[in-house]
Specification:
Length: about 180
């Protein structure tokens, strides 16, 4: 995986989300935020996560979707249960994954962060394939953005503790951070 000029990594799946805007300071990409998502909740597979980040979720496909189909959010990357990586937003642009958030006294983490969503929940461990691809992807991101050091890799729950619990109790922080070398 290499970076091209537009901030899209090579050799992964690309789907362009309309849910992004410009970073206030494109030179400041200095935080990595790990999340989980599954749609419907606790169900894996299918295209509903893609549809959600693309603003195309069908509100009639599941009762829960009526509540969320108009929510405009995105992420830079999504890693499904099989380890397939999809990128929805250029790294040069601001994806909308963190919401109201604060890291070390600084608000609006979307401004200066990259978001990675893992297909998962707080009820099941993540897969080996997901960790393997997450490690590769993180190493590549850290090479491209040296301001992102291991102490600037956080969970959504770290930057929005009153609202969010992801990536949850099953995420293996120690192994993940060690795997980055
Ligand atoms: Zn999250």
């Amino acid at each position: 995986m290499k970076n091209n000029k537009q901030g899209w990594l090579e050799n992964i799946r690309h789907l362009t989300s309309p849910h992004f805007d410009k970073r206030p300071d494109p030179q400041d990409v200095s935080l990595l935020v790990i999340h989980y998502i599954s749609l419907p909740p606790e169900q894996f597979g299918g295209n509903f996560v893609d549809d959600f980040f693309l603003g195309k979720l069908n509100p009639t496909a599941h009762p829960y979707f009526k509540e969320i189909y108009q929510v405009r959010v995105s992420t830079h990357f999504f890693i499904d249960r099989n380890g397939r990586i999809t990128q929805y937003v250029s790294l040069q642009d601001r994806a909308w994954h963190a919401g109201v958030s604060c890291f070390q006294g600084r608000n609006k983490c979307n401004d200066y962060s990259i978001g990675i969503e893992l297909e998962g929940s707080n009820e099941q461990p993540f897969t080996e394939q997901q960790y393997a691809k997450l490690t590769q992807l993180t190493q590549q991101i850290m090479a491209l953005y040296p301001q992102i050091t291991t102490d600037r890799i956080v969970g959504h729950s770290d930057i929005a503790p009153e609202r969010k619990i992801d990536p949850g109790r099953y995420f293996e922080w120690d192994n993940y951070l060690k795997s980055l070398g």
